[in-house]
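Consider the tokenized backbone below.
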């Protein structure tokens, strides 16, 4: 999902807009929400679809965009087929501990396992789409079925998300409650280059491949909280 940069935003005056990277001065002042690039009004975040323009904001995101371009070029060159699965925030059993690469869910769980309160950046209002790994595995299987029937040279992107936005603060609070650990601490810290909101519309995956997310957020968190990380 990092290929999108910021997710979808709507301005009451200008409709769908694409805010640029947030300014360091705004972040330092605690102004975390992106504003309309035309009138500086507040924006309403929405669900991003697969036809949204790429806007990678860091090296990691740029490599993901490059992988899609390379794979679709390969498909055209050799008559293959490619399904590009744009995973949103995946969590679940066997997620490794103590590695920032595994994402915010693993970082929060590691803190709680050590008896520390999860440290939530910004104001905790960042919206993400947390999707359970079993649902992601089912999406992979569905996508393999699509590639076997796809036309030669075909390439199709699919968002893989639960379809229900949650905030990072909600994730931290849910995990803390599940394990009976200390409540999250909102730090106000930030990482320059992070996006504020990015949540998926997975309608294409449901409509074309018959997939849907089945693991409820609360149930997934309880399971995740109880996993030792082996």
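A designed sequence for it:
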């Amino acid at each position: 999902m990092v290929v999108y940069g910021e997710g979808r935003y709507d301005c009451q005056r200008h409709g769908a807009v694409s805010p640029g990277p947030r300014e360091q001065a705004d972040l330092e002042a605690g102004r975390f929400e992106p504003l309309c690039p035309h009138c500086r009004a507040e924006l309403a975040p929405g669900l991003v679809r697969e036809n949204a323009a790429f806007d990678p904001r860091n090296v990691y995101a740029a490599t993901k965009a490059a992988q899609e371009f390379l794979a679709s070029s390969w498909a055209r060159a050799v008559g293959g087929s490619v399904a590009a699965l744009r995973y949103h925030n995946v969590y679940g059993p066997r997620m490794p501990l103590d590695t920032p690469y595994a994402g915010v869910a693993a970082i929060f769980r590691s803190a709680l396992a050590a008896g520390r309160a999860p440290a939530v950046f910004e104001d905790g209002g960042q919206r993400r789409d947390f999707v359970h790994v079993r649902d992601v595995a089912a999406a992979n299987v569905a996508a393999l079925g699509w590639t076997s029937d796809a036309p030669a040279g075909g390439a199709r992107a699919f968002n893989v998300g639960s379809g229900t936005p949650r905030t990072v603060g909600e994730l931290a609070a849910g995990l803390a409650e599940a394990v009976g650990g200390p409540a999250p601490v909102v730090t106000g810290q930030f990482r320059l280059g992070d996006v504020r909101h990015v949540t998926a519309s997975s309608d294409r995956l449901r409509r074309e491949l018959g997939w849907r997310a089945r693991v409820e957020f609360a149930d997934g968190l309880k399971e995740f909280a109880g996993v030792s990380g082996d």
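The mean pLDDT is 92.
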